[in-house]
């Protein structure tokens, strides 16, 4: 079996420059008003270099989104959900901690796309990734629908939307809490609720 060819580090660097330029421009002006010239000028590259990698600014946006979310999915897959225990929430699954670590690593990208400019394509993609993660986790502990009091899809969508809302809140508040703290407490809310003594 042949090994996958490594991407030239210079290509990776050039693509990162263009992605960073795109994000900073979206933050400043919004996506619609940006041109390829704006991106190349901000990234300090020429137009010919841009078109070696991307067809247009939308291609750059979609490719950047795919790269970020592929990395997020990789982090979420670090733990076998069948081995997850909810007994010790102080030590959350590494995949869940990894999710917040990856968000912190690309905080500017997530902050602009999810919060400041609320880019619909990116928001939708993140929701789908989170829904898949929730679905897998739910299936590992509650395999049968008759073990749920509401439709499974409702639980998945509710939980994924809650996770997304907390992610945005964390970013908007400059990530005050550590990734491990976020993972531990979000998992606690999702599995046991937010109460020290349930009042209901």
UniProtKB/TrEMBL annotation:
Superkingdom as given in the UniProt entry: Bacteria
Keywords: DNA-binding, Membrane, Transmembrane, Transmembrane helix
Residue ranges of the annotated DNA-binding region, renumbered to this chain: 35-54
Listed name of the protein: TetR family transcriptional regulator
TM ranges: 154-171
Domain HTH tetR-type, chain residue ranges per copy: 12-72
Database matches in Pfam families: TetR_C_8 (PF14278), TetR_N (PF00440)
InterPro entries for this protein: Homeodomain-like_sf (IPR009057), HTH-type_Tx_Regulator (IPR050624), HTH_TetR (IPR001647), TetR_C_Firmicutes (IPR039532)
GO molecular-function terms, A-Z: DNA binding
This protein's record includes keyword Glycoprotein: no
Originating species: Brevibacillus reuszeri
Gene3D superfamilies according to UniProt: Tetracycline Repressor, domain 2
């Amino acid at each position: 079996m042949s090994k996958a060819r490594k991407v030239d580090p210079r290509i990776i660097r050039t693509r990162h420059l263009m992605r960073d330029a795109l994000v900073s421009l979206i933050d400043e002006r919004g996506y619609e008003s940006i041109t390829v010239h704006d991106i190349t000028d901000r990234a300090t590259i020429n137009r010919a270099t841009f078109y070696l990698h991307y067809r247009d600014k939308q291609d750059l946006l979609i490719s950047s989104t795919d790269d970020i979310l592929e990395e997020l999915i990789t982090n979420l897959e670090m733990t076998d959900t069948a081995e997850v225990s909810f007994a010790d929430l102080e030590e959350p699954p590494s995949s869940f901690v990894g999710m917040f670590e990856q968000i912190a690593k690309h905080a500017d990208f997530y902050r602009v796309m999810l919060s400041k400019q609320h880019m619909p394509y990116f928001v939708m993609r993140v929701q789908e990734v989170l829904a898949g993660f929730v679905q897998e986790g739910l299936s590992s502990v509650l395999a049968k629908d008759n073990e749920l009091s509401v439709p499974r899809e409702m639980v998945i969508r509710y939980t994924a939307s809650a996770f997304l809302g907390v992610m945005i809140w964390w970013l908007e508040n400059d990530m005050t809490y550590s990734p491990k703290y976020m993972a531990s407490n979000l998992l606690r809310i999702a599995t046991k609720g937010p109460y020290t003594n349930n009042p209901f």
